[in-house]
Amino acid sequence: MNMDSDLQIAGDLLEVPHLLQPERAHPVTVAEFAGLARSIAADRSQWAPYVEYDATTRWYHRLRTGPGYEVWLLSWVPGQGSGLHDHGVSSGVLTVLEGELRERTDRGTRTLSPGGERVFAPGYVHEVVNDSLEPAVSLHVYFPGLTEMPMHESMHESLQARCAPAAPGAVVA
Questions:
Q1: Which of 10, 97, 102, 163 is deepest in the core (most CB within 10 A)?
Q2: What would the pLDDT profile of 7-59 be if each residue is shown by its tens digit?
Q3: Single pTM value for the model
Q4: Residue of 162, 161, 158 whose CA lies nearest to 84
């Protein structure tokens, strides 16, 4: 009977390149997209030169695209907000780079400070506002890339739409 362990049989796995997973050129999992957002956030040279402020509207700049995703940089002067919305079929990662943003959802309100991150799935309804006295900058990763941003009249309305009972005879998947 052979008493060798798997490690002894295989040897040093780093010496067997065909056993190693190739490094991905682009993120494909939620964790990888969150990691992408954190790595861009940590390197000011990737985003700071592009920041601008506009007193009339939120300013935005697409920083990067890849297969099935987009990375956007947004700036917010005090008082600017997104309005209550969702992101259609896109999931996303929101990371605050500078300043503070307040996010309102059906679960309540939270303040996001630099490094604060929200990961959300399709259909996630929220409103983001800069209600501080200083400008703010945020990074947004959408996968797939953002193709729609439906606006909602009220949180109550969006909750009703998501919680409405199915019509009689309707098939619920």
A1: 97
A2: 555 556 566 666 667 777 889 999 999 999 999 999 999 999 999 999 999 99
A3: 0.78
A4: 158
Instruction: Report the alpha-carbon angle 160-153-73, nearest 5.
Output: 110
Question: CA-CA distance, 170 to 173, in Å (whole number)?
Answer: 10
Q: Torsions phi, psi of 143, nearest 5?
A: -140, 120
What pLDDT score does 167 carry? Answer: 47
